[in-house]
Amino acid sequence: MKFSFLNPSPSSDTPDMVVTAWPPLGMLYCAEVLMREGIEVSILDQAAKRFSSKQTLDWVKKEDPDILGISVLNSSAEEAPKIAEQVKAENPNIMIVLGNYHATFNAERILQKYSFVDVIVRGEGEYTSLELAKCLENNGDIEEVEGIAFRKNRKIVLTPERPLIKDVDSLPFPDRDLVDARYNCAIYGVRVASKKFSTLVSSRGCPFNCSFCGCRKFARGIWRPRSVENIVDELELLQSQGYEQFLFVDDNFTLNPKRVMNFCRKLRKEGMDIEWFCDSRVDNCRYDMFREMVKAGCKVVYFGIESANQRILDYYRKGITPDQSEAAVRKARKAGMDVIVGSFIFGAPDETRQEVENTLKFVNRLDIDVPQLNILGAFRGTDLWADLVAKGYVDEDKYWETGVYVPKVSPHAVPFDDIRLAIYDYFRAFYLRPKTFFSELLRTLKSSYRFGVLLTNAARINHIIQTVRQGVRLD
């Protein structure tokens, strides 16, 4: 029995905020669980390898698996079926299985539209993939496999949901060497990881209720942390393999500040000299937590600030205030964080031009190093999507695969092109502002981490500066 996994390249025109090449941890976890049970596996990350469609098909043909599992996010929702169709045409005996967020939220629609897709894995895939492989190997009845969708007698069958993995410490560490690719962490094309880099997950799920996010529904609103000892054990293994920089891709890394501080103290006690990056909610911030993070090697923190307008934050159900965002940035800066990233979203269904301007001015007031300005997108699986469909703004049949920028469909939103122009004008002013230039230069001269990033990206940064000076838009 052989189970091959494919992480397809993203479509070029999907409204994802940022597409960054990171290791496909979900696939790697699934692969490790399968291998522990004697099942042969292989993985191709098409995006990281920069494979063409032909090269990807040649890889599948060479591997000749019994099952091909394809990870499908919103960014690859249109590309994945194209590959699946060609694979099935080449070898009708391969079982085509789709999984991950987009597949989970669109299982029935995918099976209705694409006859060459055999099975959808809904939710967490480790033990569903294992059970499916064992079932196929033993000629069993896949209707007994929890957490899947498939066709039977021309009808779509959804088996009962598989229980979430409660003890995430029980999962084996994923083997990054299964993917023959070098990864980096980038923000707007600037590599913030200048050394051997990988991602890590210290917890699964998020209990919050943001209307634009599908994490809560995917993980059923339950947060499941790994133990500090288990995380450090994996970091020690990765460090022994030459990894020096890590991004925690948790949905909510700092949910429990006490756990974060214990983790940081454990890193220092073990003498681990690593650099790492993470996200943090602004309402869950303590100075002592940030200070422990900095002392333990945290170099970048990412805040989801989203808006300066309480009305918009309430619409997003963020559960935060602008004052909390300002306080979080101040605490992180005072603690000595090297780089502070702030994420902002524009284009709520009835957001006014004044509210857009309020947020742009707010970005300037905050002492952040990297402002990430995004236009609001809606996707199936989020409450935002359901709200727009209910109001008649979104044609579900038209946009279920691609998602849609909200300002392109809401009659009350600031027009999409106007928001995009405002964002461009903001960046041009931000990066040419002398105060910004000199403060960032001074911080870089004081930080060995930032100086390393500068050297790694010298050519790219020069290109950005020249482009902005010339007034050419960055795509």
What is the fold's blueprint, element by element?
Layout: E1 2-7, H1 25-36, E2 40-45, H2 46-49, H3 53-63, E3 67-71, H4 79-90, E4 95-99, H5 101-105, H6 107-113, E5 119-121, H7 126-137, E6 148-152, E7 155-158, E8 186-187, E9 190-191, E10 197-200, E11 203-204, H8 215-218, E12 224-225, H9 228-240, E13 245-248, H10 257-269, E14 275-280, H11 287-295, E15 298-306, H12 310-316, H13 322-335, E16 339-346, H14 353-365, E17 370-375, E18 377-378, H15 383-390, H16 396-399, E19 404-405, H17 416-432, H18 434-446, H19 448-456, H20 458-469
Parallel strand pairs: 1-2, 1-3, 3-4, 4-5, 10-13, 13-14, 14-15, 15-16, 16-17
Antiparallel strand pairs: 5-6, 6-7, 8-9, 11-12, 18-19
Helix pairs in contact: 1-7, 3-4, 9-10, 10-11, 11-13, 18-19
